[in-house]
Amino acid sequence: MGAGLLTTVALVLAVLAGTLIPMQAGLNGRLAQAMGTPIWAAGVSFLIGTLILLPLAALLRSPGQALADLSGVPWWAWFGGLMGACFVSITVFAAPIVGATAMIAAVIAGQLIAALALDHFGLAGYTANPIGWRDLAGVVLLVAGVVVLRFGRG
């Protein structure tokens, strides 16, 4: 697969992944309603995901080799699971309160703010890429969009 095609496939899959976030938050919000707490709903969601991912991962690579390679992982890389748990729990809580559109706009604004910092300082394995005024303007406009989406409805 050529680099251009690989990039296109990756972007299409990223858009597809983006479509799943508001659906996941809504479905997990319904779980939270039934279970009485977003934390239980997030836990059940992660359990289902784990039960699906582990057999698939074992098909793609031997568990022994994958576990052996963990010794080279930097300490900070282990926080990805914690961040995923926080993300799912927060969206389960927020989605029914603010709605899918405002929640996703706020999530995207937060993602861009974090991405700018990660790129600018070269953190979490990213290459340093200084931010410019256009980057900042884009994030400011997106944050303004979140405000309009949430509070601009009459």
UniProtKB/TrEMBL annotation:
Pfam families in alphabetical order: DMT_YdcZ (PF04657)
Keywords: Membrane, Transmembrane, Transmembrane helix
InterPro entries linked to this entry: YdcZ
Annotated TM spans: 6-27, 39-60, 75-95, 102-125, 131-151
PANTHER family documented for this protein: INNER MEMBRANE PROTEIN YDCZ
Protein name per UniProt: DMT family transporter
Lineage: Bacteria, Pseudomonadati, Pseudomonadota, Alphaproteobacteria, Rhodospirillales
